[in-house]
């Protein structure tokens, strides 16, 4: 996959571009443009339906600015740290672990490695020697008295703090699943890979609260889970998975869902797998972490993180506040345990976009193959010419469809060019209105994936598309 070609389309076709770009803004901030912002909204909508609403899970919308005490209780203030190395010559800063492609070393091991190996600054080639820890949370202050706070580094804490209230008011039963979709912030030291490593990004986080003493069975399809353990790929049955990794069904449930979700969006199965995270590499709150990794032109990237967070967060909020976060189940006071799924929106969307990008020499332009559920527009309406009443018919079709679907309209340029531009942003169907339309009320539908064309009744466009998509699904 050619990153340059891909980036060109991203920038030129207004998917995303650096924020406040006239000002030489620091890296790690990206705006989603007129096309990208629609794709991102649809992606989030699809994810919400897929992971949250279709499973009857709850959702909250919490504050981003988080009092410091919350993040002291969660351990982020003391233990959320990235190892960094600073070039003495040019002052560039790098993630010490990522620079040597080894995220499993702890700080002491990294220090020793840098002292004993010749690691050179990628910018000026000076030897890098020291490694230190850096807390990547953005600080802010609240009100005149400047109460200390942070922009949240994960969305999860608002869910933990809300948990006791939600539990009480919905009838006091476990499991209880609460999710949140929203912004998180990390002051990454070297965000150099486009929207893969941002300082401001969105997460979809789902917290599954359960009683560890219960059976906690979830109906799981008898699927295999593809795991990468110590760089060896193996397929595990659900029973073997539970026996080897995390015994609670909720973890396998999330992994199966994530696999189906990304598969449905065109990520190639042979280029993704789950990775069991070594104990040394796990976040401070976790007793078991499994990432979903995908191959991209930037290398292998983590697009989701799944963690068995135990009762760590609820217990620590109780300790810090002196308030009750435990719950009564069958007369017994317990702290529920939590399994979490955390999906980075921009990073995973990047992988989806790349996996759907087709470099097509034959066609003469590159195009996107993504499903219409996340395409910026489901269909485009093109009058062959902007006169003789063809444009009026086209506009009427546009008006009749726009309340139900995202529809693109363009009445200038040659039809060939309009098809090419539509392909480039992944519009799955183009409808052309020509002189024959005036005679027999038919229009031409052109299919993006095959470039085939056929005539259909202009009153049946959406019915035709839906039927076509149903048939395609059966074929897959
Ligand atoms: P990395 O090791 O790449 O920094 P992480 O292990 O810190 O990632 P998590 O803390 O597990 O990531 O966060 C959960 C998810 O949030 C990730 O799988 C990723 O999709 C997303 N995410 C985390 N950091 C960023 C970032 N800086 N930019 C974009 N997405 C991110
Ligand atoms: N909530 C998991 C993470 O962002 O690290």
List keywords for this structure.
476 residues, 3 domains, alpha+beta, binds adenosine-5'-triphosphate, single chain, five-stranded mixed beta sheet, Rossmann fold, BirA Bifunctional Protein, domain 2, binds glycine, nine-stranded mixed beta sheet
The overall number of domains is 3
What is the class of the largest domain in the CATH system?
Answer: Alpha Beta
- Overall shape: it is globular
Strands in their spatial order, largest beta sheet: 3-12-13-21-18-17-16-14-15
Low-confidence runs (pLDDT<50, min 5 residues)?
Answer: none
Distance between the termini: 24 Å
Helix content: 25-40%
* Contiguous helical run count: 15
Counting DSSP E segments of at least 2 residues, the number of strands comes to 28
Could you tell me the strand content as a percent range?
25-35%
CATH superfamily of the largest domain: Bira Bifunctional Protein, Domain 2
Radius of gyration: 25 Å
Q: What structural class do helix, strand and pairing data support?
A: alpha+beta
Q: Identify the quaternary structure here.
A: single chain
Mean residue pLDDT: 95
Q: According to CATH, what is the topology of the largest domain?
A: BirA Bifunctional Protein, domain 2
Describe this structure in words.
The protein has three domains: 284 residues, Bira Bifunctional Protein, Domain 2 (BirA Bifunctional Protein, domain 2, 2-Layer Sandwich), CATH 3.30.930; 52 residues, no CATH class; 99 residues, Rossmann fold (3-Layer(aba) Sandwich). 32% of the residues lie in helices and 29% in strands. A hairpin with a 6-residue loop joins strand 7 and strand 8. It is globular. The two termini are 24 Å apart. The site of adenosine-5'-triphosphate has 15 residues, from strand 13, strand 18, strand 21 and helix 11.
């Amino acid at each position: 996959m050619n990153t340059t070609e891909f980036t060109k389309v991203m920038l030129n076709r207004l998917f995303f571009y650096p924020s406040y770009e006239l000002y030489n803004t620091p890296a790690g901030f990206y705006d989603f443009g007129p096309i990208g912002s629609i794709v991102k909204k649809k992606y989030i909508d699809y994810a919400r339906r897929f992971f949250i609403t279709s499973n009857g899970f709850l959702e909250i919308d919490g504050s981003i600015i988080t009092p410091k005490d919350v993040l002291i209780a969660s351990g982020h203030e003391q233990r959320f740290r990235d190892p960094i190395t600073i070039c003495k010559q040019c002052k560039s800063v790098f993630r010490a672990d990522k620079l040597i492609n080894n995220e499993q070393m702890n700080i002491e091991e990294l220090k020793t490695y840098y002292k004993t190996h010749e690691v050179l600054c990628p910018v000026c080639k000076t030897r890098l020697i020291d490694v230190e820890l850096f807390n990547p949370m953005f600080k802010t202050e609240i009100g005149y008295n400047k109460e200390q706070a942070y922009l949240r580094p994960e969305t999860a804490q608002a869910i933990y703090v809300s948990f006791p209230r939600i539990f009480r008011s919905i009838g006091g039963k476990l499991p209880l699943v609460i999710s949140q979709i929203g912004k998180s912030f990390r002051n990454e030291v070297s965000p150099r890979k486009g929207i893969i490593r941002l300082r401001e990004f969105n997460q979809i986080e789902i917290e599954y609260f359960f009683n560890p003493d219960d059976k906690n069975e979830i109906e799981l399809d008898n699927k295999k889970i593809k795991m990468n353990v110590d760089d060896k790929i193996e397929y595990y049955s659900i029973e073997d998975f539970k026996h080897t990794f995390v015994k609670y069904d909720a973890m396998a449930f999330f992994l199966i869902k994530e696999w189906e979700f990304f598969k449905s969006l065109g990520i190639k199965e042979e280029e993704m797998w789950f990775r069991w995270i070594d104990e040394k590499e796990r976040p401070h709150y976790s007793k078991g972490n499994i990432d979903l990794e995908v191959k991209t032109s930037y290398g292998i990237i983590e697009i989701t993180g799944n963690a068995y967070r135990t009762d760590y967060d609820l217990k620590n909020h109780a300790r810090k506040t002196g308030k009750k976060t435990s719950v009564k189940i069958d007369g017994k006071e317990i702290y529920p345990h939590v399994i979490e799924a955390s999906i980075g929106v921009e990073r995973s969307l990047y992988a989806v976009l790349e996996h759907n990008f087709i470099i097509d020499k034959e066609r003469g332009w590159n195009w996107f193959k993504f499903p219409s559920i996340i395409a910026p527009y489901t269909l485009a309406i093109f009058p062959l010419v902007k006169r003789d009443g063809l444009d009026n018919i086209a506009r009427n079709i546009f008006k009749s469809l726009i309340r139900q679907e995202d529809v693109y309209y363009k009445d200038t340029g040659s039809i060939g060019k309009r098809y090419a531009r539509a392909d480039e942003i992944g519009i799955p169907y183009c409808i052309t209105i020509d002189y024959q339309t005036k005679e027999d009320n038919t229009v031409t539908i052109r299919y993006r994936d095959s470039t085939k064309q056929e005539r259909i009744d202009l009153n049946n466009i959406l019915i035709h598309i839906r039927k076509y998509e149903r048939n395609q699904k059966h074929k897959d």
